Amino acid sequence: MTNTTTHFGLPLPSPNADSQRDDVARIAAAIEGFDALAGRVRAFDTDAAPGSLAAKLQFSGATVAILNLGGDEVMQVAIDAADTTALETNLMVIAMWQLIAAGWAAHGMVDGVVDEFTDATGLDAGLSDAVLTTGYVTSALVADATDGRGAYTYASSIHEGYVPNRVVDGVTDGTSRWIAAVADASAWWAVDLGTAKTISALRMISTPAVYGVKDFRLQWSANSSNGSDGAWTDVFAATHTSEAVWVDYPIPLTAARWWRVALDTKWAYFSITEVELRTAGTFTATSAAYAADGVPSSARLVLRHQPIGAVVLGTDLIVEASRDNGAHWTAATPVKQATVAGVDILSVTIPLSGQPVGQSMRWRVRTTGAEQRLHAISMQW
């Protein structure tokens, strides 16, 4: 592959093992858009067992060696000591690659698709209610702005026209934000959702330096009318240390109409750039249909899945496959194979022989419970 491909049919593997590795290397490169990664993956020791997950890392200067379960070095990756993001991404791709490779080598799969959700073309919009954001799908955002969706914002005070509804205007670069009055030592920002909604997570961006949030509490109320009155219950207290980026605060599922971020300790000003409240993590994501050359007897799926709260696989995350265009579905419980930078690599093989004969393949992911994000998925058959 010379370009990133959002979702695509994979070629039939050759009986030659090196050719299979070459196919999978191109898949791995496409998943993250790293053209150079293909060469790195092909550099794996040809004697390494297909599908063996890396057991540990061995750092040496500006490189890190990845060791397999037997302790043998299978790859060296150059890293910048000041930034481990590239390393984490490479490890994530490698872990997913090894599981996809096992589909060819150990499970006898002959074709498949990969989707990394850079756009919606791999999803069936009529069968999905998941929200597509940058690089993943997730549950819906709660209505949260004075834009006719039934929610209104309030604040204890306002500094120089920095009104509270700026916190939900979608502008995240710090140019639009709410700021409390300098003398307001008990500042708060509140939102009325119109009706009680079950919330699973608070996401917040605070402006940097002297304008940022420091110590705060998330609260809810069932009987407020303006954010100031009524009885308020604390959900949690936290110190906000990451400025100018989204920070996730998962919470136990809580149903309430009114929500408030209350100041405990401020910097020179108390200010919030953007807030999102997420609903309980319930969504359905269903793929487009893909034609199989034969009648598949099973489907193997590999997922990059991020749980924002506690998730029980098979209960809060249900993974299914169909060979008759979605008329019948079979589910199986995925197994966590690795975790990189808070994102789990899951795999599952789903038997399809109990379904009516068909050659139109689909995958489906359904979630309940805490907020969850699906970053990428591959399906082989």
Question: How would you briefly describe this protein structure?
Answer:
This protein has about 375 residues and is mainly beta.
What key attributes describe this structure?
381 residues; disordered N terminus; mainly beta; 7-stranded antiparallel β-sheet; Jelly Rolls; 2 domains; 3 helices
How many domains make up the coordinates? Answer: 2
Tally the beta strands: 23
Estimated structural class:
mainly beta
Radius of gyration (Å): 24 Å
Strand content: 35-45%
Low-confidence stretches: 1-57, 144-150
Distance between the termini: 21 Å
Q: If helices are DSSP runs of H or I spanning 4 or more residues, what is the number of helices?
A: 3
**What is the H-and-E element order?**
HHEEEHEEEEEEEEEEEEEEEEEEEE
Describe what this molecule looks like in 3D.
The relative contact order is 0.15. Helix 1 crosses helix 3 (85-105). The strands form 5 sheets. Strands 4, 5, 6, 17, 20, 21 and 23 form a 7-stranded antiparallel β-sheet that branches. Strands 7, 9, 10, 11, 12 and 14 form a 6-stranded antiparallel β-sheet that branches. The chain has helices spanning 17-32, 35-42, 85-105, and strands spanning 56-60, 63-67, 73-78, 112-115, 131-133, 136-138, 152-155, 178-179, 188-205, 213-221, 233-239, 247-266, 271-272, 274-279, 283-286, 290-291, 298-307, 317-322, 330-332, 335-340, 343-351, 360-367, 372-380. It starts with 16 loop residues before the first helix and ends with a strand. It has 2 domains: 17-135 and 283-380, no CATH class; 140-279, Galactose-binding domain-like (Jelly Rolls), CATH 2.60.120.260. The protein is built from 3 helices and 23 strands.
